[in-house]
């Protein structure tokens, strides 16, 4: 069963990203929003972990732009708008928000 994991907290403030990466299944995907997009900051340790991720990786475009990271998207990640975010939620069997 596939799961879309939603992260919205900075990877520098707690361990949600690390916990999510440990539980990520082979059919799962991750969507970064809010301060979680800071994980994509060039040269950061979270970005290095995400760049090697074999899973689908998405980031909310509005949050990338708000934080000046729209040009920092790694090759394995895709920026999505709100309609695409909703579509992703319907594509996966479950949606898990890391609150």
Key terms:
alpha/beta; Sulphur_relay_TusB/DsrH; DsrEFH-like; 99 residues; 4 helices; five-stranded parallel sheet; Hypothetical Protein Ychn, Chain: A
Provide an overview of this structure.
The protein has one domain (3-98): 3-Layer(aba) Sandwich (Hypothetical Protein Ychn, Chain: A). It contains 4 helices and 5 strands. It has helices spanning 16-23, 45-51, 61-66, 82-91; strands at 3-7, 29-32, 56-60, 77-80, 94-98. A 5-stranded parallel sheet has the order 4-3-2-1-5.
Quick structural overview:
Helix content is 31%, strand content 23%. It has 99 residues and is of the alpha/beta class.
Task: Compile the SSE list and pairings.
Elements: E1 3-7, H1 16-23, E2 29-32, H2 45-51, E3 56-60, H3 61-66, E4 77-80, H4 82-91, E5 94-98
Parallel strand pairs: 1-2, 1-5, 2-3, 3-4
Pfam family, one: DsrH
InterPro entries: DsrEFH-like (IPR027396), Sulphur_relay_TusB/DsrH (IPR007215)
Can you summarize the main beta sheet?
Answer: 5 strands, parallel
Mean pLDDT: 96
Might you state the CATH topology name?
Hypothetical Protein Ychn, Chain: A
Principal-axes geometry comes out as globular
Task: Please identify the structural class as seen in this structure.
Answer: alpha/beta
Q: What is the CATH homology-level superfamily? A: DsrEFH-like
Helicity level, as a percent range? 25-40%
- Numbering strands along the chain, what is their spatial order in the largest sheet? 4-3-2-1-5
């Amino acid at each position: 069963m596939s799961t879309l994991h939603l992260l919205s907290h900075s990877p520098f403030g707690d361990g949600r990203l690390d916990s999510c990466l440990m539980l990520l299944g082979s059919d799962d995907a991750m969507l970064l929003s809010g301060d979680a997009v800071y994980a994509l900051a060039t040269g950061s340790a979270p970005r290095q972990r995400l760049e090697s991720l074999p899973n689908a990786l998405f980031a909310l475009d509005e949050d990338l732009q708000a934080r000046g990271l729209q040009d920092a998207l790694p090759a394995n990640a895709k920026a999505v708008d709100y309609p695409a975010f909703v579509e992703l939620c319907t594509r996966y069997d479950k949606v898990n928000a890391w609150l």
